[in-house]
Amino acid sequence: MRFTRTGLVTVLLVVAALFVGSWLTQYLPNPDDFRDDPFPVAGAVGEPVRLRNSEFTLTKVQAAKRYEAFRQVAATDGVFVIVDFTFVPLTEPGILAGSQNEVRATDGRVFGGSPPLPSNCGPTNPGLPVTCQIPFEVPSDALVGLVLAIPAENGSHSRDNVTEIDLGITPEVAEQFAATDAQVSIHSSRPVER
Amino acid sequence: MAEHTPERAKSRLEPWRKRYALVSDILTPQRIGLLLAVALLGVVALAGGWQAVEGVEGPETPKVAVGEKIVATPMEVTVRRARHVEELKPSLPRADGYRYLVVSLDLTLRHERYVSGVELAPAISLDAAGLKTTPLRSGPKINDPSLLRGLDGLPARTYQPGLATSTIVVWQQALTEPIPTEVTITFAKQTWRQSVLDGGWGWYDPAPVARVTLPLEELDAPA
To answer: Before A135, cis peptide (omega within 30)?
Structure first.
């Protein structure tokens, strides 16, 4: 095999083209980057938020240093943000596990998982709303701008409907929440009185 | 016209080439590679086998003083005290044949998402004889510690990002063992990766990063 100048230039050009191509691809949209993204449905306190299989209305947001459920008391080094909401499945009986909901801070932190004392919402039948209370334990530096994320299906915060409800915690409210020493008694899920 | 073909200079490898030509139909390059691989396995076997590597101790885990901050990804931990007790109601009921060894510490999660206590527990281990084990096919395995919340004594089901949580780490030790005067607790960093079994993301592969030796006191001792 003979090496010629033309051959050498061709090889260099091919290598350069491959290099530029691979460098450019990192700036192109990659399906993996958004394949798992949720389909958020925005809302605010007092507004019904309709997901594909259920409807939520956030009715109250309060803070506590301790909360009581099932004759036990949970305490925190941070703040318990307790959200009250109504939940109504639209087509099939539904239940919402307390551990499946999240609140998201403006700095990207996500709070949730199993609370110290369990709290569930439901079960209930389609068209029969229930009221629920779910606590989230957060550090006081994350309170401002918290957003509530409730998934349409338990455990599915991706590729599906998820609420995006602003809890309305302003810096002033956050200050009050951080200073609270309240103890709140959490009720279990119960039917809405009409 | 007389022609002249220059004679090619003899390579110094020529004698070896001739010798190899005699056996080249048997000793093909693939077979030579195979023989070398077999020889390598033989040497490894004579040296004790691959298993021997597991017994080789890595670099010693650094010692850290009580009260000093330890970063063991995704945790940041400060160890406070170690105590022993046979019963502490309602969180630690009396257990037949076992006492509790408890270490109190502050644990802050340094990850952007909440993590369950069950995922963090394998990263904390205690050096003490007679700890409760679970029988497995591969032999008895020391149980991961239970994590309790220091403020309310409830199980620490979840740790939230950036929230310093006072925590009680609990092991069970057989009553037949003498109560140690001091214990060493080791913290391991973990790696956030996808499971090869189910594809789910989690914290795996604990690797020790720090150990703390502290006296073991009776739980009734004044704080």
So the answer is: no
B78, B110, B114, B154, best to mutate vs chain A, most A CBs in 10 Å: B114
Confidence of residue B223 (pLDDT cuts 50, 70, 90): very low
| Phi-psi group of B87: left, alpha or beta (phi > 0 → left; psi -120 to 50 → alpha; rest → beta) | beta
CB atoms within 10 A of CB A98: 21
Least Cα distance to B211 among B72, B55, B108 occurs for B72
ipTM of the complex: 0.87
A111 to B157: CB separation less than 8 angstroms, yes or no: no
User: Exposed, middle or buried, B47 (CB in 10 Å: 0-12/13-18/19+)?
Assistant: exposed
Query: How many helices, marked H, and strands, marked E, lie in chain B?
Result: 4, 12
How does pLDDT run across B173-207, given as a tens digit for each residue? 999 999 999 999 999 999 999 999 988 889 999 99
Can you tell me which residue has the tokens 């007679």?
A: B130
Cβ-contact B152, A74 below 8 angstroms: yes
Taking an 8 Å Cβ-Cβ cutoff, which residues of chain B contact chain A? 112-116, 149, 151-152, 154-155, 157-158, 160-166
Q: With cut-offs at 50, 70 and 90, classify the pLDDT of residue B16.
A: confident
Q: Measure CB to CB from residue B158 to each of A114, A139, A142 and give the nearest one.
A: A114
Distance CA B144, CA B127 (A): 12
